[in-house]
Amino acid sequence: MRQLVILAVVFAFIAAAPAIITSEFTQNVIIMVLYAALLGQAWNILGGYGGQFSFGHAAYFGTGAYTVAVLQVQLGVNPWIGLVIGALFSMAVAAFIGFATFRYGLRGSYFALVTLAFAEVLRILSNSVGFTGAGVGILIPLAPGAANMQFETKTGFFFLIWVLTLSSFLVVWWIGHSRFGASLAAVRDNEDAARALGVNAFRVKMGAIMLSGLFSGLAGIFYAQYFLYLDPYIAYGPAISVESLLVPIIGGMGTLFGPLLGAAALHVVSEATRELIGDVPGISLALYGALLVVMVMFMPRGLAGLLARLGVRRRAASGEMPRA
Amino acid sequence: MLEIRGICKSFGGVRASRDVTLTVPEGHITSLIGPNGSGKTTLFAQITGFLKPDAGSVHFLGEDITGMAPEAIARRGMVRTFQIVQPFTGQTVRENIAVGAHLHRASRADALARAEEVAHRVGLGDRLDLDAASLTVAGRKRLEVARALATDPKLILFDEVLAGLNPSEIRDVIPVIRDIRQSGITIFMIEHVMQAVMSLSEYSWVLNQGEVIAEGTPAEIVTDEKVIEAYLGKGMAKRIAERQGIHA
Lengths: 324, 248
What we know:
Helix content of chain A: over 70%
Helix content of chain B: 40-55%
CATH topology of chain B: Rossmann fold
Oligomer: heterodimer
Order of helices and strands of chain B: EEEHEEHEHHHEHEHEEHHH
Strand content of chain A: under 5%
Distance between the termini of chain B: 43 Å
Order of helices and strands of chain A: HHHHHHEHHHHEHHHHH
Number of domains of chain A: 1
Largest interface: A-B, 21 and 35 residues
Number of strands of chain B: 10
Largest sheet of chain B: 6 strands, mixed
Shape of chain B: globular
Distance between the termini of chain A: 19 Å
Number of domains of chain B: 1
CATH class of chain B: Alpha Beta
Strand order of the largest sheet of chain B: 6-7-8-3-9-10
Number of helices of chain B: 10
Radius of gyration of chain B: 19 Å
Strand content of chain B: 15-25%
Radius of gyration of chain A: 20 Å
């Protein structure tokens, strides 16, 4: 319950931002942080809570993004309907990949490699078929208006991503307080022991990958509507997969607030480097790699783990007993 | 309650189970003993669905459960513990036990309440909020028992829950096991600690090299010639008998 209150306060606080901050630049930063938090939270469901490290979340992101774009451009389907269809398609792709991997008991690095391969296959496919615009990419025609999910101000996009991100956080809060979440964590920590206690590991992992794919797809849909342009490398390229996993690893895997902390930290760092070094090609990837190594080596529980530790120390200093 | 008919299992040239047939009656504590490597744990794995037997069948409550998944078997009321303890490390004792409690309880609050109740029953009541990784060996063994118990099983298979414990810890755990049996749960246990087998079990099956070589009450088993030879080597039964003759 305490977590839910904190969640409500944090998101209420964020919701007030566009009213206070008028700078388009800062509003854009907040939107991108929320978007990264959604992407990270999606990965966190499967990777953080389920212990299944996917290197190919671009598969779901790209499917969501391309679905909403192709439906608009080729068939003239309204993006709000496209959002629903895109989310379902992303979930279906996740179900397919989950079935193909979990059915045969792939774990650890094997699972990671196969998910990476699936994302690459989709990237190559989207590069070679016509209706996605192939290598040229696909441009969503500008048609400002909330009915077309193209808001005239940043505030509109802000509230769209705010709702999507909040919904992912609410789902993850529920996971932390449900039988499904308990089963998922049990499978993560010891699959055999979980099965011996009656946990259907396959079904639980399928549930996790489908939820994960759903939210990744929603992030993709938002991306498509915000930037109005996609190509195979943006939608299905490894950069999205890396960002998906980096955010929760930095913030704290398997924690509710980790992805938000990670998204904020990542943006602060990348904005700072852009200020200091400028737009050197590939610098952000090099930096991400370095960050990942540092986090895994020194702070495996991420920023959320660090905050928890500081909290315990402060309470201990003020004479209260830490909670075990 | 549990019937095993003609189970065979080979790993390459090693025949881990050779035509094993045995039964576990409802409401009692039955034990499975045998020297190291005699195929006890392999048999447990086949009963609970972790391994598929090459031949033969397993029947639980009249239903053929051969080849079913472990989770399907657990749902029918048969759970096992592991000889090498398998805690969910990083989770608290309470959360560990709640995983078992969730089997028949959808609500988180119900499962956590049940976990607390079970923890008190097995003597972990004071360690509910500790990380399972911080428990001692004895604590982890209790946790294995608690998780299994929390699933509300009809039959529990204990795989050496007393191994690795010191005599005073064994003395503490024996009443816990007896209490489980009193509450109406049937127990089938693999055990090396003879003190426990003698004081707890009502009927024993003895495996050697994958074969059932003897069955009977513990008192009968310990004087069985084949059993003594399986444990101590060929000819030992005779020598012990002779020596007892001299002393008598």
